[in-house]
């Protein structure tokens, strides 16, 4: 396990060299917080005095997953996306805590340190479960909540999700590291994208190239497999929690207006989860994009941006009337 100083130096070197996928108009910065250093991707706002938004990526992803959507929303919100500890350009946490609560703590500390709250909080997959916990535990930090295919417990997991879940089994990542040692990053990047996209034909050459470069870069990091395996285990453990700590009970505690976005061709998450989520979140609007997969913000950024703007307009209007109406659809 590298020291904090070594991990920080590695991450800063990556930033100095140009972390794969950093687009024009984006910058990367590092924030030192108790027990962790976080990389944050920022998209320059197109106009002044926009409300802040924070984006939280999914399992195995990074802040780069939000680049297309942040570009679409440059006139709507001030966009920042976090690299969770051990992912993207963020070194691992000194505590070694990769649980959902550990990642939730990282998001809360970042918001507290930057004094940016309340923010429009957006999360995808694992990032959706983290964002749910943030909104439930610290409602003062969340203006609105947008969840894209959030990782919430399902009674019957989709077949496509089983191989991902296996990463949380002790020893599996060690076997995978050996088995994939000679596998080119291009092959693994293509497999991941094909699993996450509803229509693999929509994977652009630019997206594939960026995903391949980032994977190649991350596989050289000494903590790559550990962060992936332990975060998967942390998510599976969160699925088993009952009572007040269950993710569904946390969803019921969320006070912020919530937009739920699901893909009709999601191989990792069933539509039944969307219906349950629309009932669990007290003030929510459900939007299903029929052709989208698990990462709608990458596959259909314009459509997701349009749904977010419409949701934002409704939430603002309702807040102006002294309350928030149920906007389910």
Automatic annotation (TrEMBL):
Against Pfam families, the record matches this protein to: Abhydrolase_1
- Region annotation (Disordered) maps to 1-23
List, for all copies, the residue spans of the domain called AB hydrolase-1: 54-300
Q: Which UniProt keywords apply?
A: Hydrolase
Q: Which InterPro entries match?
A: AB_hydrolase_1, AB_hydrolase_fold, AB_hydrolase_sf
GO cellular-component term (any): membrane
Basic and acidic residues: compositionally biased ranges: 1-11
Q: Gene3D superfamilies from the entry?
A: alpha/beta hydrolase (3.40.50.1820)
A molecular-function term among this protein's GO annotations = hydrolase activity
* UniProt cross-references to PANTHER family, sorted A to Z: HYDROLASE, PUTATIVE (AFU_ORTHOLOGUE AFUA_2G14860)-RELATED, MONOACYLGLYCEROL LIPASE
State what protein this is by name: Alpha/beta hydrolase
């Amino acid at each position: 396990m590298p020291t904090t100083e070594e991990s920080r130096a590695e991450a800063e070197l990556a930033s100095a060299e140009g972390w794969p996928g950093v687009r024009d108009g984006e910058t990367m910065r590092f924030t030192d917080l108790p027990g962790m250093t976080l990389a944050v991707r920022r998209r320059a706002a197109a106009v002044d005095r926009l409300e802040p938004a924070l984006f939280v990526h999914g399992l195995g992803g990074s802040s780069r997953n939000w680049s297309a959507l942040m570009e679409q929303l440059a006139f709507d919100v001030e966009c920042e996306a976090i690299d969770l500890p051990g992912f993207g350009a963020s070194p691992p946490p000194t505590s070694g805590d990769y649980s959902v609560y550990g990642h939730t703590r990282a998001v809360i500390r970042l918001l507290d340190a930057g004094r940016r709250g309340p923010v429009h909080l957006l999360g995808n997959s694992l990032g959706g479960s983290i964002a749910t916990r943030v909104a439930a535990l610290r409602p003062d930090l969340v203006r609105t909540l947008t969840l894209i295919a959030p990782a919430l417990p399902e009674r019957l997991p989709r077949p496509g999700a089983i191989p991902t879940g296996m990463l949380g089994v002790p020893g599996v990542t060690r076997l995978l590291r050996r088995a994939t040692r000679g596998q080119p990053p291009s092959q693994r990047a293509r497999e991941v994208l094909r699993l996450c996209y509803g229509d693999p034909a929509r994977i652009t050459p630019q997206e594939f190239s960026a995903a391949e470069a980032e994977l190649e870069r991350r596989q050289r990091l000494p903590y790559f497999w550990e962060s992936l395996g332990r975060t998967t285990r942390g998510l599976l453990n969160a699925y088993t929690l009952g009572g007040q700590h269950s993710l569904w009970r946390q969803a019921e505690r969320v006070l912020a207006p919530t937009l739920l976005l699901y893909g009709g061709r999601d191989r990792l998450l069933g539509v039944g989860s969307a219906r349950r989520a629309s009932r669990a979140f007290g003030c929510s609007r459900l939007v299903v994009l029929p052709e989208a997969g698990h990462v709608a913000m990458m596959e259909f950024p314009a459509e997701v941006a349009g749904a977010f703007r419409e949701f934002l307009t409704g939430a603002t209007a309702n807040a102006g009337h002294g309350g928030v109406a149920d906007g389910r659809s």
